[in-house]
Design goal:
Radius of gyration: 15 Å
Number of strands: 6
Shape: elongated
Oligomer: single chain
Helix content: 10-25%
Order of helices and strands: EHEEEHEE
Largest sheet: 6 strands, antiparallel, barrel
């Protein structure tokens, strides 16, 4: 297994939504801090890790920020990502890096509280 982590550069559109962030609220709060009036809009680097041993989906791709899992790619996005890895001749790697954006985390009172969302800057077919 290669130690180098390939960096994937997207077009700057951040169109790939990370799935399952609600299961990783504690990780997102650790990264972003507590909810606040205006929320957050933070640029970060994400690692995408192929999870061949995932018991629910052998083609899963988990998303990590600062060493903490913040979600995973949707089933369709994971398969598209793996195809791009294969066709890009990067099959020797299990971990990749890309730009990401974390948004949300506002708290404007008891009835207006926003969860965190993560979007990735990955190339899409129409880029």
């Amino acid at each position: 297994m290669a130690e180098e982590v390939p960096k994937i550069t997207g077009p700057g559109h951040y169109r790939v939504d990370v799935a399952g962030e609600s299961f990783y609220r504690d990780s997102l709060i650790e990264i972003c801090g507590p909810h606040r009036d205006d929320g957050v809009n933070i640029d970060v680097r994400a690692k995408l890790v192929l999870q061949d041993d995932n018991p629910h989906d052998k083609k899963a791709v988990k998303v990590m920020v600062n060493g903490l899992q913040v979600g995973h790619l949707s089933r369709d996005d994971a398969r598209a990502f793996r195809r791009a890895v294969r066709y890009g001749k990067l099959s020797e790697y299990e971990t990749f890096e890309c730009a990401a954006l974390i948004r949300g985390g506002w708290d404007r009172g008891p009835s207006d509280r926003g969860d965190y969302g993560v979007r990735l800057d990955l190339p899409q077919d129409d880029d």
